[in-house]
Amino acid sequence: MEFTNYEPGEYAREHIRITPTTLSDGREFFYLDDEPDYVAGRKVRELRDPRQLADRFANQLDPEGNEVPYAAPLMRRDPLTGDWVPMATARMNRPINIGPGATATGNPLAARKPGDPYQDGEVPDVDYDVVVFENRFPSMVQVPGRDRDAVAHVDGNPLWLEKPAAGRCEVICFDPDEHGLPADLPVERLRTVVEAWAFRTAELSAIDGIEQVYPFENHGQEIGVSLAHPHGQVYAYPYIAPRLETELRHTEAYFQETGGNLLRDIMDAEVAAEERVVMENGSWVGYVPAAARWPLEVHVAPKRDVLTLDELDDAERWDLAQMYSTLLKRGNTFFDRGDGKGMDLPYIAAWHQAPVRDSRRDHYRLNLQFFSFRRAANKVKYLAGSESGMAAWVSDTTPELIAQRFKELGPVRL
């Protein structure tokens, strides 16, 4: 299968097969197979969604039973900060599958199980390797026939701009084992996940109106994850998100002042200092940043200047899969409960990539920011008045202590 913007490398051409289909409500769905029989075409995937779902953009019924148009997400601009804030009321109706507020049974990310109470879930086949599909309850979506650039004013006041939240939200399932952990996946499977990140970065970046592609992983119920199944997401924003905008302002100012790349110089400085470097292989460096905010935080950067995930070559993709596997495993042993077994670490893994169209992209650099708000085996860092109210961080540890603990868990050179 050929795609317009994604170009597989030699490994992917020989060892990964991407098969597209469409779910019954019209959402795009992709299998990424690394099992040899599927790669060779000796086996084929189930492409027909057995559910009978209404078209995703069809009219809906309100609480009184009246037919109303599809409730497309909107976004409003905060005039005080300039931030766009998506508002997706339809997400209030999405099923919750764990915890005391659960409203559904079954796991929609698992492979299809005939007779499963949750409409057999989102995957048409009874097995899979890695799958990617559009989120059924997206925070952002492009609605056919609607002007994504249409600007309105809330209450007729030009202070408050309102536009369609015309982005895209996708889910990546890393493995069919709904009880597994990303840290336990073989490096070969994580290599397929890396390919999925690159594939979606290339394809989503080509969609009109998309300004930033953000693959990320939320892991752990304490983070707010409603499904334990090993999975991540990709957000394609129709604007540049506030964190990246801040970073772009600083990387551009640094370039104008010095002619250098701030992210490269930070990585080089960490390598020179050595103390906070916790992992290194042929293509990547993992370090605790000198001004780390979180009680566990590691940044991972490619040694070569790369803007986005789809620019990585085969060697860099393999080395990334290896380093990510090591990072997840060591994260799970970082906190000791006294039994030597560690814990299933709650974390966020956030890919910071160059923006799609902004002119400042050339002075940025790909990097992964991995962090957890757990500060001890039995303690969580809560974002209280200073952090939440003023975004003024107070760290409960030091970057050097975080790095020291990582170095106790395994060698720096992988």
Automatic annotation (TrEMBL):
Cytoplasm as UniProt keyword: no
Cofactor(s) essential for the protein: Zn(2+)
Catalytic residues (UniProt): 231 (tele-ump-histidine intermediate)
EC number(s) from the headed UniProt entry: 2.7.7.12
Superkingdom of origin organism: Bacteria
Domain spans labelled Galactose-1-phosphate uridyl transferase C-terminal: 248-407
GO biological process, one term: galactose catabolic process via UDP-galactose, Leloir pathway
Domain Galactose-1-phosphate uridyl transferase N-terminal: 75-239
GO molecular function: UDP-glucose:hexose-1-phosphate uridylyltransferase activity; zinc ion binding
Gene Ontology cellular component list: cytoplasm
EC main group: transferase
PANTHER family on file: GALACTOSE-1-PHOSPHATE URIDYLYLTRANSFERASE
Protein family (similarity comment): Belongs to the galactose-1-phosphate uridylyltransferase type 1 family.
Record protein name field: Galactose-1-phosphate uridylyltransferase
Source species of the chain: Bifidobacterium cuniculi
